[in-house]
Amino acid sequence: MKIVISLVGGQLDPNLLTPLQLEATRSVLFRTPDTNREAKNLIDALGVNGISASVQETPAFDFAQTREDIRKKVETLRDEHQGSEIWINYTGGTKIMSLAAFEVARELDLRTAYLEPRSSSLLTTLGTLPQPSIPISVKFTIEAFFALKGFSVQRNKSLETNAQTRKAFTEFVYENIRNSAIFHNKLFSKVFQFRIKNSTANNYEKLIGTFITENFWNSMVSKNMSGFQVKLNSQSANFNTGAQLIEYFSGGWLEEYVFNKFYDSRCADDVTIGLRFLSSENDVMNECDVVAINKGQSTFVECKSGNFNSTDIDKFHSVAKMYGGDYAKGVWLSYYPIPISGKSSKMRKFSMNKINLIEGMKQIKNSLNNPCQLGDIQR
What is the reported pTM? Predict the structure, then answer.
C-alpha cells in the first residue's frame, strides 16, 4: 500500500498529480482552517481517480504543532498499515507547513516529493538524501480538472464514440456544406415550425428524412432497424433517431469535426464534446461544445455554423470564466465569415472578453493543424 501525505494550499494541481504519479491508493490531507473548501475539492478529484482520501486540520503558521500533527499521523498509519510505503508531498500549504513536513520526513527517514510550478518531474528524497527525479507522465482528466475547481460535470461518451465513428462522413460535410449556405436557415425554420405544430415522433422523423433528401445535394436518407442512414456520395453515417440526425445537421457536424481534430492530434490531456456542467442536484446548468484540458489549463471552444449575436458571446465568456477560471482559453469558431452588418460590435465583444475568433472554413481547418494552440492564436 502506498500512502501520500499532502499539504493543502491554494494550488491543488500538485496534490492531485503527485499521488497519481506515485500510484498511491490513499492520500492524507493536512489543511488549515482557511482551506476547507480546497480540501473538499481535492478529495472529490482524488475520488474520481480511485484514490481514497481523509483530511486533518493543522495550524498554518505553527511549526511545532504542524510537525507534531504530521508525526502522529505517520505513526498511526504505520501501526494501521504495517509495511506500507509512506510519502510526504510538501509542495502545498504554507512555507511553515512545508518545513514541518520535511522535518518529519527527515526524522522518520520517509520519502518526499516536491513538484515545482510548471515542472515536468517530481523532485524526491529519502530522508534528506536526494533520489532520482520522477517524470510526470499522468494526465488530467476532464472530470478531475473540474472537480478540483468544485464543479461536477457529465460527459457524453456515446457522442464521443459516434463522432469518431462518422469522422470520414463529417470531413466530407465540412468540406462541402458551404456549397449550400442557405441550408441551415431553411433547416432551422422548418424544424421550428414543425415543433410548434406537431408532436408525434414518427411524423418528426419523416419530416427530417424528407427535408434532408430534398435539400442536401440529393442525399439518400434511409430508415433501418437502428434508425437512419445518411449517404452523401461515397460517405455514409448512421443516426439512431431523427432528433440526432437533425441535431447533427443543425451544427453538430462542426462540433464533431473540431472534437476529432483534438482527439486525433493527442496534444491534449483530455478532450470531450457536449460537456455538461451540473448543479448540486445534478441538473444541467450549462453546456460547452468542445472542452480540452492540457497541462492543467482548459480550452473552451464554441462552434458556430450559423448566425449568432453579441449575447451569445457574453454567455460563452461567462461559462468559460466561471468553470475554467481566469486562465481558461476561449475560442470561437465561425464556419462562415461574420457578415459585415453588426460585425464591429461583435469584434469588440471578442476583444473585450479575450476570446480568440477564427472565422472561415479554410482558417479553421488550418488552425486545427495544432488544436492545442487554438487559444494562443491572435486576430
Answer: 0.83
